[in-house]
Amino acid sequence: MPRASKRDKILETASKLFIENGFQGVSVDQIAAAVPVSKPTLYNHFIDKRDLFIAVIAVRCAKVLKVLKDGMEEHANLEDGLKAFGMQFTELLMSRQSLQLHRLIIGESDSFPDMAKMFYETGPEQMHILLTAFLETAPKKPGICIHNPAFAAEMFISMLKGRTHLRHILGIEKKQMSEKDRQAFVNHVVNLFLHGHHLHKKQDA
Length: 205
Prior knowledge:
By secondary structure, the chain is mainly α. It has two domains: about 1-45, Arc Repressor Mutant, subunit A; about 60-195, Tetracycline Repressor, domain 2 (Orthogonal Bundle). The chain has helices at about 5-20, 30-35, 40-45, 50-75, 80-95, 95-110, 115-120, 125-135, 150-160, 165-170, 180-195.
């Protein structure tokens, strides 16, 4: 197996095991056996289990950002780009993999604060930067003016998350929205967001 594909296989296997069993519930021996590779081979790619978990997080964040970026770039105007971002964001955010990964990172944040910081910087922060840039450059309909794209991006992401994300993180709510309901929700959020940035409204962002 080529070195690159072996590393990818280790990451893929480790990701599944971490999500199913938690960080503390998986050993390097179990990961190596599940790939399967020898422990020395695994250590050729990763310093330790923590280093492997950080790599899993980084890969996941990179994939999510690429999906969001590609989705927005397919649309030539602000409204359609925001709807594409909203649909992709809500689907990815509420996926079982993302929810469990969030729980794992929160659970390990006291023991590994640098790991939590890395997740924030490579995931949510980059997502905010991506959306801010889109708000700055996307063609807008007459009457739409976004004075503070960074603040507006933060508010748009918060609107998409609402209370639903926290309810899923806590396990209070398990049922996923249908695609039809999710589309209606995203459309409503986008309409509210754009209405708040219409020139006839007092601008706070």
